[in-house]
What does this fold into?
Amino acid sequence: MKLSEVQKIRKRALALLKKARITVTKGEAKTIEVADFGLSDFRTIGLGLITYENNERYCAKELIMFPRQTCPEHRHPPMDERNNGKQETFRCRWGRVYLYTEGPATARPRAKVPKQYQQFFSVWKEIVLKPGDQHTLPPNTLHWFQAGEEGAVVSEFSSASHDETDFFTDPSINRLPIYE
Amino acid sequence: MKLSEVQKIRKRALALLKKARITVTKGEAKTIEVADFGLSDFRTIGLGLITYENNERYCAKELIMFPRQTCPEHRHPPMDERNNGKQETFRCRWGRVYLYTEGPATARPRAKVPKQYQQFFSVWKEIVLKPGDQHTLPPNTLHWFQAGEEGAVVSEFSSASHDETDFFTDPSINRLPIYE
It folds into this structure.
């Protein structure tokens, strides 16, 4: 992704944060992580992120999603004897999020996945998150989520984040590179 | 504290959350934790809390503070071999927070502590948090904080929270009872 494109995305992400009335520092604004998962189709499969804190014990991020943008299906596998994988809580701050995880498939899911990606989405139990709603996912559980028509801002609270070990259903996904 | 008093405080805390544009569920609004640390002087020494999530690995809370209200000096001691005490990150979302911790005392601190409590405040290194600013405290470190003239809303991200083991400088403090 070109730097000019990254900067355009950051500007739009900041506009969403403003709608959500979430204040970030100038330094945070300049370094919003633009994750396209190596698919070069950011507006469809992608995520803007600000990591407030990530240490060995806990992690807190703000996720910024454009309208109908999707974070692709993945799970956080066990790390070692003491760490059975990242556990995370998603709390919707603004907009709508359609979260999908393991369990009985929802009959008429609200998320719309473009045809070329559908084979990489295998869990369809839907949880709708409106502002103030939250959901905690156990470690090593498949999940993915899509923002509603207006986009979404979601706080993620979790155990330590090790993005490089995430398992994605789509084998062509590479969580890194990060553009910043 | 009488239930009528608790409900009055919750109503005022909700007004502060509204100013900060933070959406909470009806259930959360009804059960805002009103902590007076057993001193029966809530407007001076006290804190409103919503705990979004607290599990063995991480914790996320919203702290709601009235104008010039103070969270009294305390530290989070080691729990066991694997846990050297709660580590926490405070991120100011709205208002102002004056945070004090171990280190060289600030010459003209912004917080004002009423005379009768001053003996129980021993650390005076000041960190001013405006919206978007944050600070991470290592485990087992003495700290306290006071809201500015308008009050404050602060997100706390941390390792697991075990309030009952906190050490307070003021020996008459009892972190529990909680009124809800």
About this structure: Chain A touches chain B at residues 20-25, 28, 52-53, 55, 57-60, 82, 87, 89, 91, 93-94, 131-134, 136, 155, 157-159 (CB under 8 Å).
